[in-house]
Amino acid sequence: MILPKLSLKNCLKYAEKLCGRLARTPCFYQDKKIDYTVSIGISSLNRSKSLDSLLREADQALYEAKRSGRNRVCFKTTDKVYNNEQGNLVEGHRNTI
Fold it and tell me: What's the pLDDT at 85?
């Protein structure tokens, strides 16, 4: 997804809400309920970052979310990955998840 109107903080809130809603939404296959969770990686776009770099950071954040446990959201800055249990959110960037 590309969320051009959201700050990084609001993008993280949106992604957390999406994870929660999907975890509470049942999925059925051949009359059997399948429980599932979602992991989301987020990166923030700025003028000096290439599209390749943006996607690479989002991918790294996604794999960190998967490593950290189920139903997680992580975001990556140029030098660090944060998960949704940590603070240090950066506002004012445009985001993709």
Answer: 57
